[in-house]
Amino acid sequence: MESLAVQQTTPFAPHVNPQAPERGAELRDRGPERPDYLPLLTPIRGIAALWVVFFHLPAYFLLPSIREYLLCRWLEAGYLACDLFFVLSGFVLSHVYTASFDRKVEFKTYIKFMYARFSRIYPLHAFVLLMFVLLEVVKWTVLYVAGLGIASREQPFAGTHSPSSLAAQLFLLNGLGVSGQHSWNFPSWSISTEWWAYAVFPFLVLLIPRLSVRSRVALSILCLSGLYVLESLHGDLRLNIAGGPAMFRCLFEFTLGMLVYTVYKGRAGRLNRWTTPALILAPLAVAAAIFAGLPDTCVVLVACVTVLSAALQGPGRLTTLLGSRCMTFLGEISYSVYLMQIFVFELLRKVSAVLHQRMAFGSGSPSIVWETLFAAGVVAAVIGASTLTYRYVERPMQSALRGWQKSRLYWRMGSTVAGLMPVIRRTVPAEFPLFRHLLRRLIAKP
């Protein structure tokens, strides 16, 4: 999920000449001062992340009044925020990396790109999984050391929190239907699918700009048709799908985002006057599609229009409103919000159980006022925890990993591998010249 899937200082980096890395590194740190910074895409990420939180909240805490009275169908369609994230990821990565892969996909550039994406998405993902593991250790301690009783569904390292599903999440396989999609930190399924979409992105960004307009339209229709087939196979024309098909869901929408970027670059001037009405009408169009029971593919189309309109939007009242400091910060922490929400829910649910809170677990029927206050408190806790992880985990770890890439240790390790090349030449059969070539390209210092 760039959307959940992108950091403020990373996704909107300028088109940088690969031959001038120092200048590119300098520009990447300038934030909103960059000339091609797209300010409204960041608040959209934040809004989408909150939609996912509200999607999980009523079911996770069993708040019947909220589900009944407060736009139940809107909340139940919160999974569509992931589709917006996928479209946004394809658009943003095209905005940042088209210049890097405009002529060819070089091995060194490809490895640097994948390492940059790894340093962006994996540290926080691993940290949240570690928090879940520690939570299971606490349950194990309560059960086997303290000798206290525990519900059968809360058994440590069992069921949805099994070691095998943990391994699938650690290796970003949970979005491919291998194992563990609905276990541990289950929203990370979208991170898994995006990671594998990153692997093919350089080749797509090399191909798509070279297509004719008709070919791009045909590819767009193909992607939308693929999404319709997926939701038809799901049985209810909904894209809330799991397992292996989720990878195709991500790839189709990721490609749509890249195609939207070609429209942004090619016909920006002709569409500027329609951006404000489109952004205002987009939420209404999504609500209409949801309440009318239209296929989710219609909402994906609205997501494409929304991303394009936000990218083209110029100065004005709407930009001032959506680009406010509060909304921008919400977008900056959106990745943390997306990954931290379930851990905060788990923690609060266990605390509520210990304190015998009737709000989420009791047999009574609390009023909608109390449920709303409880929900607001939970969302505030998610935002607070996400702010902490953004400032003290997400940003520092990303900076550390990218700094390590430039360190002497990194190149010493490369030199060590280079010293093994004579051994590799003697042991690898001559029938595998490509394997030798890839090894040489991998360890070659730029």
Structure description:
There is one protein chain. The chain has 446 residues and is mostly helical. It has one domain. It is built from 21 helices and no strands. The chain has helices at 21-28, 41-61, 64-69, 72-76, 80-97, 107-145, 163-170, 189-207, 213-234, 245-266, 268-271, 275-291, 296-312, 317-322, 325-332, 334-354, 358-361, 368-405, 408-419, 421-427, 433-443. Helix 9 (213-234) packs across helix 13, helix 10 packs parallel to helix 13 and helix 12 packs antiparallel against helix 13 (296-312). It is globular, with a radius of gyration of 23 Å.
Q: How much helicity do the residues have?
A: over 70%
- Helix vs. strand class: mainly alpha
Shape: globular
Q: How many separate helices? A: 21
Gap between N and C termini, in Å?
30 Å
Average residue-wise pLDDT: 80
Number of strands: 0
**Count of domain modules:** 1
Main beta sheet: none
Q: Which stretches are poorly predicted, pLDDT < 50 over at least 5 residues?
A: 2-33, 356-362, 442-446
Fraction in beta strands: under 5%
Could you give the order of the helices and strands? HHHHHHHHHHHHHHHHHHHHH
